[in-house]
Design a protein that fits this description.
Helix 1 packs across helix 2 and helix 4 packs parallel to helix 5. The chain is 33% helix and 18% strand. It has eleven helices and 14 strands. The chain has one domain. Strand 13 and strand 14 form a beta hairpin.
Length: 318
């Protein structure tokens, strides 16, 4: 009964969101999109405080600290205001498919609206948080659409390359530089922005080369990313330039609420969300590490609940 009610709400309210719904309707819709993200604890660390806490950490220890803070909902409130992004494509049968995805307005960060730290992380950590929050990573096509439809496109700001790229100090420095762009442009937090980070993305290449992370983006202008799609790095790699953008697992296809997992695996529908056509076995990609299949399967009645084969945690070549 609960699934049927939720299905009806989505059918009625999601199209309204795309058409600039009333404040009350928008609140109901956003609650359905972000309801799996815990409320931020009252005494949660600020971004600067978290940076000090992990300043002496590296590798697994820092990743564990990142997961712990994000898992308890320690993210800025403005990140919960997901924005609609529209896409369309003509498939091989000549059908024009339209889609509306709902995306986090900025990249994942730890802290409050006033004091936050953009937080790069390993693929395993990213997938853990993304799926806990009822979301998915974007494809390159989604990243392009987000960039093209952003209210503001920030300029990439590369830092000097080297081992320090993976340091917390670099994470802080780059966050400060991005906030400086916000101030210079008079932007408010919660604006749909892009261009300032490379995205962790979904791609079929991850099916062929397990144990890798796929990155793409850092656009200078539409169609001109600094970083073409790449899986050169191992899945544990993260540096200051990486960002994690959440995309809701709910997508509108021609106005109808669907599972984004099902759409990405459907040869007829996938071209609207992926330049590669279907993303084969997307549930397996989004189940990197052990014990994730229970979390990424959305509620029955809305999404497919096919079991996801768990990947052993120690099968990566590093």
């Amino acid at each position: 009964m609960q699934d049927a009610v939720l299905t009806c709400l989505l059918a009625l309210l999601l199209p309204a969101l795309c058409a600039v719904a009333s404040k009350a309707d928008r609140t109901l819709v956003l609650d359905s999109l972000t309801g799996q993200i815990p409320s931020r604890p009252e005494q949660a660390l600020m971004g600067s405080g978290f940076a000090r806490t992990v300043s002496g950490m590296k590798g697994v220890e820092r990743e564990q600290a990142i997961r712990a803070e994000l898992s308890r909902g320690n993210i800025p409130e403005f990140l919960r205001d997901f924005k609609p992004v529209r896409l369309s494509a003509t498939n091989s049968a000549g059908e024009t498919i339209t889609a509306t995805i709902f995306v986090m307005p900025d990249y994942l960060a730890i802290g409050s609206d006033r004091d936050f730290l953009y937080i790069p992380m390993s693929l395993d950590s990213a997938i853990d948080i993304v799926t806990r929050f009822g979301c998915i990573l974007p494809t390159t096509r989604m990243v392009d659409a987000i960039y093209e439809q952003s209210a503001c496109r920030l300029q990439p700001q590369p830092l000097l390359p080297g081992p320090q790229m993976r340091s917390t100090a670099y994470y802080c420095r780059h966050s400060d530089m991005i906030r400086g762009q916000f101030r210079a442009l008079g932007l408010s937090a919660g604006t749909l922005v892009s261009g300032h980070k490379k995205d962790l993305v979904l791609t079929n290449r991850l099916c062929r080369r397990e144990g890798r992370v796929a990155i793409y983006g850092w656009h200078r202008c539409p169609g001109s990313p600094i970083q073409p799609l790449s899986i050169v790095h191992g899945a544990r790699y993260a540096d200051y330039s990486h960002g994690v953008r959440l995309v809701s697992a709910i997508v509108l296809i021609d106005g109808e609420g669907r599972s984004i997992y099902d759409v990405l695996e459907d040869p007829r529908l996938a071209p609207v969300l992926s330049d590669e056509g279907p993303i084969r076995d997307v549930r397996r990609i989004m189940a990197t590490g052990a014990d994730r299949h229970a979390r990424i399967s959305p509620p029955s009645g809305l999404f497919s609940t096919r079991p996801v084969p768990a990947r052993p945690a120690n099968d990566f070549p590093w």
